[in-house]
Amino acid sequence: MDQIDDVLNQDLDPTETREWVESLNAVINHDGTERAHYLLEKMVDSTRRAGGYLPFDPTTEYVNTIPSHMEARSPGDAAIEWRIRSLIRWNALATVVRANRKPGDLGGHISSFASSATLYDVGFNHFWRAPSEDHPGDLIFHQGHSAPGVYARSFLEGRLGEDQMDLFRMEVAGKGKGLSSYPHPYLMPDYWQVPTVSMGLGPIQAIYQAQFWKYLEHRGLIPKSDRKIWCFMGDGESDEPESLGAIALAGREGLDNLIFVINCNLQRLDGPVRGNGKIIQELEGVFRGAGWNAIKVVWGSYWDPLLARDTTGKLRQLMMETVDGEYQACKAFGGAYTREKFFGKYPETAALVANMSDDDIWRLNRGGHDPHKVYAAYHAAVNTKGMPTVILAKTVKGYGMGAAGESQNPAHNQKKMDTDAIRAFRDRFNIPVPDDKLDEVPYYHPGKDSEEVQYMLERRRALGGALPQRRRKADKSFSAPALEAFEQITKGTGDREISTTMALVRGMNLMLRDKELGPRIVPIVADEARTFGMEGMFRQIGIYAPFGQKYRPQDADQLLYYREDQKGQVLQEGISEAGGMSAWLAAATSYSISNTPMLPFFIYYSMFGFQRIGDLCWAAGDMRARGFLIGGTSGRTTLNGEGLQHEDGHSHLLSGAIPNVISYDPTFSYELAVILQDGTRRMMQEQEDVYYYLTVMNENYAHPDMPKGSEEGIIKGMYLFKDAGKAKKNEPRVQLLGSGTILREVIAAAELLEKDFGVSADIWSVPSFSEVRREGFDAERWNRLHPEAEQRVPYITGLLADRQGPAIAATDYVREFADQVRAFMPDGMRYTVLGTDGYGRSDTRANLRSHFEVDRYWIAHAALAALAKDGKVNAKDVSRAIKEYKLDQDKPNPLYA
Questions:
Q1: Could you tell me whether strands 719-722 and 760-765 are parallel, antiparallel, or unpaired per DSSP bridges?
Q2: Tell me, what's the pLDDT at 1?
Q3: Is the bond preceding residue 388 a cis peptide, omega within 30 degrees?
Q4: Alpha-carbon torsion 452, 458, 464, 465, what sign?
Q5: Considering only CA atoms, which of 615, 613, 602, 635 is closest in space to residue 523?
Q6: Among residues 759, 769, 764, which one has the least CA distance to residue 737?
Q7: The pTM is what?
Q8: What secondary structure letter does DSSP report for 557?
Q9: What's the CA gap between 529 and 538, in Å, rounded?
Q10: CA torsion sign, 181 to 182 to 186 to 190?
Q11: pLDDT in tens, 493-532
Q12: Closest CA to 379 of 391, 367, 397
């Protein structure tokens, strides 16, 4: 290893080295950089063929990727754009400071936008197209903490008034006019397009949005265009696994419609990102290795003369040696400190700045604050073909805040500034606010007819219109198939046994046959399509592959072979639930982002949905996504043999917490058909901003015909599956409730009770305890607010009001799931809930259901125990059930076992 280091780090023959460099420069001058690059690649290849496997350095010098003489020149008016930028900076600061001088400590962020104002300004003025007749529009993932700066621009453009600016983070008081803390489409549905403040979610969503645009183009659903996705993120945000976890996909598929802009202000929320290293170098290596075009914007134009005079290379060497913690200190402590601690390390570098004042040294700018350097990088990015681009822009966190926060560790949490700090900020950016008004921190608007505002508006007109803007509904809706179209799964299966997973796939295939809706279906799996019985789709509609299938699949001679196609309809996203969910999000928001409604189905193990990717599920609600999430092999006892981490007993509690998620746990294929049809109607036909979560099982059993008139109850979440008939005098009776696979145990328990104890049971299927709960609490709230009006009766209360006996509910989920409806039991009706509390484990379904005390015997026993408490049977009957059903009275509570 020492020998390798010697070869790499020492010049053993400077004369020979100079000759090689001179030869290379001659090639560059005569044939261009591309030819020189080709020759270097051939030389490296020859070296490796000779056995010289020297390590590859994926990083370049710590200077700008684009040399100054090759920079594209901005066509804009630099002076006006500086004034605009300054006004936006001031109004962004005023937004946060004014908010935090009100009672209530509203919070907010100043320093993030302060560091990235130039990055946004250049994009808004020259690159970001709005949707128009001439262009489908670009998509911008704004860095969440920079929202005040985006509002400040909209204020100058006349889109927001002072009254609305003063409603920053006051969405309740604002009554629909408040400005959300971060980008939230749910709260500002005409403005923000994507939520980004949960760190890491913006980058992974941007990658899969870019992939989905290519998917739509290849399938002929949208025309090809040069639209781009711009994703802004912080360098500290790169630590999130979602930020970098999918970048290889973008490189592999050549997503040249994707541009990342990483604001490298060298600071996390509490301090340096890589204080002992250099985050720009690290990220350059990561992205270049993943097949991205990496453009570094490290130094501003004031450094160009110094770099030109660096004939010895010592300045470049010093730039490479200096770590981010030192760079941060230089910006925090000023020019004199930088002269001594940075330039003073070598005589050669000290000499470079000998004729510069300390103020001159302090003004040496970072690349991310230089609009000329940023424009050149953006220009190169939008003209890059065949690969995605990442722009690594070096900035100063809290830029312009001076002693109040510039390049200081606590800068992220800076929300308030005293009058002296505000005065310094005003003077630095030449804002025409008089001293006697500084305490008010007033917004400043130069007037709608001012040169600055007219320039802004002209630039936006040239780029198609205002941004951000969001489309609420697509121009075209698609009719849902009638329920009759699902006849294959609304009719019973007779003696044939199938699972609800099989019924789901059949339902999807029926929908795929619809000429209008079929092409809009997007099946998505995180690799295990065969597990869910979807391999038939491989041949039928193909798996999307941007470059087609370049090999003959191993199973080509089989009927259901693995077929990849550039026009394939299935998105198979590898072993990545976060990737599958991000692809689903892209499809589920296509109606808004691309004016192209799609209906995605993401099918996965239910344990790995709302639990593993819950933040993305919440983002889906925020984005007003529309589509179906399918939790496969759901329940704690259905996926027998898979053990603790695979067995789901709580996903419905998690899904039910998201307001616009409609959750169902169907048992029979006809229930699934009704839900699919109604969900498609609501999302594709009525364009409602909801999405669905359905759980399905891999347990095979016979399915009955759909009971007449059950459709409404299925949709509402509960219906009478079997009526025990008119009760005989003094006959004990119970109400049995169940969902999913455990409803079949409930049905069996009813037979035991009738046969062994003469107890009759009404059986209720509850496909959605979550929907029943929501309706119940909605009625309860209405009643409280309208005490003198006729009181509403919750749906479940009305169903059970005239029924006799106690109610017992059993599901394959934790007790809290069915316990959600306890508040709405009719007065005097005892309610017992059984569930699968505890960790999952491997065993047979029968043993698992016995262990968790949700099988037919435990359900029958619970019914008898409730009847005994009501005085309808005696305790000896309960004891007899324990004995006859071989229930272990001393077994540990499964919650702790």
A1: antiparallel
A2: 41
A3: no
A4: positive
A5: 602
A6: 764
A7: 0.94
A8: T
A9: 9
A10: positive
A11: 999 999 999 999 999 999 999 999 999 999 999 988 888 8
A12: 391
